[in-house]
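User: My collaborator and I are trying to settle a disagreement about how two of our proteins should look. Neither of us wants to argue from intuition anymore, so we agreed to look at predicted structures for both before our next call. Could you fold the first one, then the second, and keep them clearly separated?

Assistant: That sounds like a sensible way to settle it. I'll keep them separate. The first protein:
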Amino acid sequence: MEKKTPKFYELPVSSRLEQLAREAGLPLEDLLPLAGAPALTPETADYMIENALGVFGLPLGVARNFLINGREVLVPMVIEEPSVVAGASYMAKLVRSGGGFTAETTAPEMIGQLQLLDITDLTSAKEKLLAHREELLALAGKVDPVLARFGGGPRDIEVREISDSLIGPFLVLHLIYDVRDAMGANAINTALEQLAPRVAQISGGRPHLRILSNLADKRLARAECTIPLSALGFGEYTPEMVRDGIIEAWAFAAADPYRAATHNKGIMNGVDAVILATGNDWRAVEAGAHAFAARGGRYTSLTAWQKTADGSLKGTLQMPMAVGIIGGATRSNPAAAAALKLMKVNTAAELAQVIVSVGLAQNLAALRALATEGIQRGHMGLHARQVALAAGAVGDEVNRLAQQLVNENNIRSDRAVQLLQEWRS
């Protein structure tokens, strides 16, 4: 009888990296940091943050089946929550039946803000600043000659008037800065410091805060996918039931901020996991995403789902995506560098396209589960292993105990401890 080839998740952990290296066409040595050899060391960590004691571990997995802009992508994800990697991988498989994900990005333009206080005539000061636009752009352009060589640099100056009941009206100068393949915070903040004295001379105001904005709404990533109706049905659920249930679940999030918060958190389960794996600033992207979700004056869904003319299901996700592939932890952390190699991304734009596609896949996984058999069935089955580990199970006990908890539909730590004590006695 012919021996069955094991699926990826059935392989022992020690064999999975070898399989990935073969699939990606990369030397195994390039991917070893994903398994912790070499890892981020306490010595390196000491240079990265203050009062370092060591490093903190989180599970690192790989999402499979992703086809993005016609390219096969293996996606590393760092996350402690069960079902996220599996959900994203399975939804990517469904999306493949409709041609995969299509993703795009706008120019990598970030916004730096310079607050100007104590101005008596806001309108006049604003006009003066805009009249000196070219001078200010030229001054900001001298800050980072390396970035300029790669085609980056300042692009525009905007000036906004803000009214505040506490400190009175003031101006905010926005420096629009193309940061190419960097996240861009350091370049922008340095440029703002360079501009502040001259801006004060022109406007007559007092420069106060000089800092980039994490609402990077000029640096957007967008992904879309279409799943044929025939691919949506399973078990007792017809394709129409699944499609319409997903749209109805999305409509709830679009209309209600209480639901939208959890809906968008599910999207960020996928987004943050890839950002962490690549050493990027997940807090910055989180802040930008949620601010973007409220840009219309009410917090709402970041995704949109609809039925197409032929009855298929179409989804889109658009959000700010300030990520980089140079500088920071993307180079100092060996695992982050290996993650970029595995995905074979050569620009920050390509990385953003992968991340937004994973976010859309994760949203689809959550909506599909909620609209059909419920979120707990699959999620809690995977969660049972964590409960078993926390109860003290080791080796073969982990899967045995997890399965028993699932069979009893009683995935509780106290029951896990009780079962272990009974077995061991």
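The second protein, kept apart from the first:
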Amino acid sequence: MARIVKWTETAIEDLGKAAEFIARDSPYYAASFVRQARNAASSLDYSPERGRIVPESERTDVREIYVKSYRLIYQVTSHNVFILAFIHGVRDLANIFSYRDGRYHFIEE
């Protein structure tokens, strides 16, 4: 069953910031990068489980795939795939996960 892929506002902003950064050197590569990110997200409609479980969350419904050096973090539900964040691989996940009880937990909005 195909799922509907939906981007959160946070993830859209993340992608925009990454594109702006790349566009400083090359608008062409920035546009290409955005296309790659969107295509990667769109491909999750039929195979969302292919991404790995985000190690910081330890939740099986929160997964990630890489687009270049960026982590496309998403949540899988029975009918949807929510793109939660699009962050550089070295960025701190504190704004997505809260740390308590000795591990990270997904912040549900």
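Some points you might bring to the call about the second protein. The mean pLDDT is 87. The beta strands are 4-7, 52-53, 62-67, 70-76, 80-88, 97-100, 103-106.
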